[in-house]
Amino acid sequence: MTTDPGSDYGDVVRNHLTRVEQQNAVAIDDVAELVLASVRADGTVLTAGAGHSLAAVAETFYRAGGLACVRPIYHPELLPMHGAVSSTAAERRTGLAAEVLREAGLAPHDVLFVFSTSGVNPYPVELAAHAADAGCPVVAVTSLAASAAAPRRAGTTLAENATVVLDNLVPPGDATYPADAPVTAAVSTLATTFLWNLLMVRLLDKAAEAGVALPLWRSANVEGGDVANAALLRKYQTRIPQLG
Predict the structure, then answer these.
(1) Do you know which SUPFAM superfamilies this protein is assigned to (predicted)?
(2) DSSP 3-state assignment of 166?
(3) Is there a contact between 74 and 90 (Cβ–Cβ < 8 Å)?
């Protein structure tokens, strides 16, 4: 393996995540305020994505240490495991966002997170636009650089329809290695889940300062976890059917 400075993939990732943390510090604080206000109002945090961005949605839902008031919204056609080519086609199909949002429902005291690194396909863009029209705050977790380089399939971009933007700083094409001509090692999943957990840390600190108890899951694989989670399941199962 070459020992040139910065050529090691671990260094690439660490440097990238440092930049993500530094450049999103103010926006993370703003998003934490939005989510805390939603928790105080007994709202729901809805999380959405398509293709590999659904990995970020999975990170937000029913996760040890995660918020219990999270509802994932998606459509089976958006999952690559249900058909790789068809999942790309679904993300580019106009009208699917309205369909999934009708089923999920939106209220002004909710918050919608849309994960999409390119941020240009109709599904994520229309999710954000419909939510904004309904008066629901929208957090776009995207890459401004990737959006700028991608074809605008929906006329606007996810970021242009968002209340707050968290920029994962992913380069166009996502690959990061080797640095001089990257062809592998996508960084979008790492950067996006890092942003979500930076938010969780800031949210916890803000909630503690405000005296607000966050509804947080415990691991089901530690002593007392099932008992601790039972009350949260009773509270949220009727609102979040995916908890069934």
Answers:
(1) SIS domain
(2) strand
(3) no
- Domain for residue 134, yes or no? yes
Q: Which helix (H) or strand (E) holds 71?
A: strand 70-73
Give the model confidence (pLDDT) of 13-42 as tens digits.
999 999 999 999 999 999 999 999 999 999
Structural domain harbouring 70: 23-243
Judge whether 28 lies within some domain: yes
Determine the residue type at 237: Q
Residue-wise pLDDT tens digits, 82-141:
999 999 998 999 999 999 999 898 999 999 999 999 999 999 999 999 999 999 999 999
What is the domain-level CATH number for residue 153? 3.40.50.10490
Model-level pTM? 0.94
Q: Measured between alpha carbons, how far is 203 from 111 in angstroms, rounded to an integer?
A: 14
Q: How many domains does the chain have?
A: 1
Write phi, then psi, for 79 (nearest 5 degrees): -85, 120
Residues 6+ apart with CB under 8 A from 197: 59
16 within a domain of the structure (yes/no): no
